[in-house]
Amino acid sequence: MKKILCIVLCAVLLCPMLSAFSCAADKTEKCDCPNAPIIRVNGLGASIYDANGKRVQAADFETILTTIVKAIPLVPGLLTGRLTARETEKLVEIADGFFDELGLDENGDPIGGQAVHMVYPTEVDHENGQIICFDYDWRLDPFDSAEKLRDFVVYIEKLTGHDKVFLIGESMGTIIMDTYLSVYGFDDIAGVIWYNGGYKGILTCSDSFSNQNTISAETMGAYLKQVGATSGSTFLYDLMCALSDSGFLAEAMSGILKGAYSLNDEGYLQDFLVRNIGRFPGFWSFIEYEDFDAAIEYAFPTPELKATYAKLIARVTRYHTEVSANVDKLMKTAEKKTGKVGVVCGYGSLLPPVTHEEYLQSDSVIGTREESNGATCAHVGETLGAGYRQKVSDGHNHISPDNLIDASTCIFPDKTWFVKYHMHHFSNDGYSADIIRRIFLSKGTFTVFSDKDYPQYMILNKEKTELSPLTAATDEDRTPENGFGYQVFTIIFKVNAFFLQLFKHIAGSFRE
Ligand SMILES: [Zn+2]
Ligand SMILES: [Zn+2]
Questions:
Q1: Which residues contact 35 (CB under 8 A, 6 or more apart)?
Q2: What are phi and psi of 234, to 5 degrees?
Q3: What is the pLDDT of residues 97-142, one digit of tens each?
Q4: What pTM, to 2 d.p., does this model score?
Q5: How much distance in Å is there from the Cα of 306 to the middle of ligand 2?
Q6: All residues with CB under 5 Å from ion ligand 1
Q7: Using CA atoms, how far apart are residues 341 and 446, in angstroms rounded to an integer?
């Protein structure tokens, strides 16, 4: 009898405990606030850890230092563009060293239990529009990351008591987000934003994979000046201007470029690609749709290579045919099903100078044409022209006040915002939450005409913290003045350019 009593007592005591436990794990109370939680799929850059919890990275300070030391004997060969076979092997070995830890296997999977440590929040203030971040291993197949995003979305829905979430993809995050939408559809999506997105391809990567890179001292100089101008340091700006204007950069680059092109012709760059970043399915998703076939042929030129990398090729081809090919359709479906979509992009900067379209308007990492999905853009340093007329007339003006952008050709002309100024891609992101919350949380559809403080064209202030409407008054030329250092550096570089020329002449004749 005592025993039975005990069991009954235990059961009575356990029941509420069990139900309380299951409640915590599976919160089913509905939240009736109007604000679905906002999930931001972050851009490339989450830290990756090995099985022992040690951070793995491309190059720490020690790696960079040893690389420089190891590369010193190669300087004459590099500067003259005439590396011997032995030196070339050495260079390849040094370059491989950078990817030792981050490298993936032949199928594009991580080695030895590497992973991103994703933190699941236990509390979120979604009612006030808190933005919840999702991170992923940016090297991997976007389909794998989309599966993890699915778990996260389901978790956040349970945590907040909502059956829908807002998704914003930032930079590479737009690729993971689009993959998610193509696999899991729109049933629990309340709205979508593509923010500084790489979803239509990233030219610098696309050109590298499809062998279309062109580099010149002229565009390299212009880009370095841009880096100096945005650094806020007169010293750095003067240094970059003098480096470029003195002719030293052109002198130094002529040999290096000659060497780089011959390394490419001899197949070293292709070989380096397939053993390193060419194994990152995540990077394959940066390739523009039109460049994909050329990239496959460049990276895997022989039947043997195609066989070795068959699984990797199948993976990256899946992204190409299922997501990349259908981005426009996905975006239109998002607009139709949720009513709340937006595209935010940057302009006013040069891309890193390694693409075949050197003066493409960009946010310094991704072309504005790609980020906006279709804007007509003037090249950096030019305008659309005095007599330019909007390409598509829809009853609104879609030309920017500075005559650089025509948004009428975008996929969503009335729901695309442009933010002007240098290095926008790398800017402090504090200001972006405002526009995101307006697009998602406003009653009804938010467009570029809904709020006079958030028109189609905006400008980032110098502190990179706030956006203002772009007008004749807020627009300004941000090219700094050169300081005294410019004259000094120019003399130094001119002298060095002379000695470099002499050195190359002597080193070159020894290498004949
Ligand atoms: Zn709620
Ligand atoms: Zn319009």
A1: 126, 127, 128, 129, 441
A2: -65, -35
A3: 777 788 999 999 999 889 999 989 999 999 999 999 999 999 999 9
A4: 0.90
A5: 47
A6: 31, 33
A7: 8
